[in-house]
Amino acid sequence: VEKESGSFDFTVPEAFVSSDAAHSMLTIATLEHTPFWATSAVTKNPTNQVPSGLSLAFDDPQNTWGQFVLAAARHFRGRIAYYEVWTSSSCSRWPTWRSRAPTRTPR
Asked: Cβ atoms within 10 A of the Cβ of 91, count?
């Protein structure tokens, strides 16, 4: 979706969302993984890395994850029923973001 910073191509997920709508189905989108250029450290496997700027406000241009989520939410506004967001705490048994200590956000 984002092969380089700030350049979003929603063509593939758009096809799924459009197909769901055409068949009167709700869409549940899963937001996960980090592209190579957006990791907090140089790595051969970016899925294990925390996105750079994650500690910043979600709408801070340096928060790569926040910018991706914001762009996706704006692009699909009103067409995705639910979002599943994979974070360090929800992925503790999966090979994603293991380098970060689990955290919980109160509801």
From this structure: 18
Give the total residue count for the chain: 107
Strand pairing partners for 83?
29
Q: Residues 6 or more apart from 25 whose CB is under 8 A from it?
A: none
Report yes or no on whether pTM surpasses 0.85: no
**Which residues neighbour 28 within 8 Å (Cβ) at sequence distance 6 or greater?**
80, 81, 82, 83, 84
Q: Tokens representing 84?
A: 């599943």
User: Mean of the pLDDT values across residues 62-69?
Assistant: 90
pLDDT tens digits, one per residue of 21-36: 999 999 999 888 777 7
